[in-house]
Amino acid sequence: MSYSDMRYSVSQCSISTAYSKCVRYTRRIFKYDQMDFQFALWQMLYLFVSPQKLMKMFQTRKYTKSQYARDDPAFLVLFSGVLCLSSIGVSFVLNLSFVQFIKFLFFVVFIDAIGVGLVLATVLWYLTNTFLKPQNHLQDIEWGFSLDMHFNAFFPPLILLHVIHWLINHNTYLSVFFGNAFWLCAAFYYAYISFLGYNSLQILKHTKVFLAPIPWFILLYLISSLIRWNVSDALMTFYKYRVL
């Protein structure tokens, strides 16, 4: 059998396995008694205090369960709950009506978090398998792992930005300076945790490319602060316009 035939066979097997894993994962979402919420809370905590330890867990899962991606949807369920609670706080700041809040929650959960997450996970899954993985390595990076990495990297910025929106949604220079600094930290968190996640796989090369956007984030922060463009205020205006 040629290498291309082997590659195609492994790819077909991976697709079939990924589909079966996705079905099992989806079914478990409706079985709360089978979820480990305490462990999921531990993961959320470590995303803030020590994300390196959390990434080592993905390596351990590969040896014990033959997959990098989570097989327990408890993290996703808690993530959705936190997103709903933080959206309530933002809705109070925006002074939204109940109907507007429902629309806002729909956009935040299904568009900003899940929709964008699916797109980013798919793009990063393709790029890592195409450019960062050695061509002679038959095993592909799981799409579910890329989605997990997005949610891991998105959770700290979500808390950081949604919780302090009410403090930085002003037009004073200090609000612009500190508000945009929070955005810089959020962007850094996303890039850094994404780097830690993909770097933990060990089969990938040149994973430092995930850190490449950081200098651009710093440059954008400096420019936005100099011209006194409040990113949080702009986002609040966009949120409110979207639900009107």
Automatic annotation (TrEMBL):
Broad class of the protein's primary localization: membrane
Spans traversing the lipid bilayer: 75-98, 104-128, 149-168, 174-198, 210-231
Membrane topology: Multi-pass membrane protein
One GO cellular component, as annotated: Golgi membrane
Location of the protein in the cell: Membrane
Keywords assigned: Membrane, Transmembrane, Transmembrane helix
Family to which this protein belongs: Belongs to the unc-50 family.
Name of protein: Unc-50-like protein
UniProt lineage: Eukaryota, Metazoa, Ecdysozoa, Arthropoda, Hexapoda
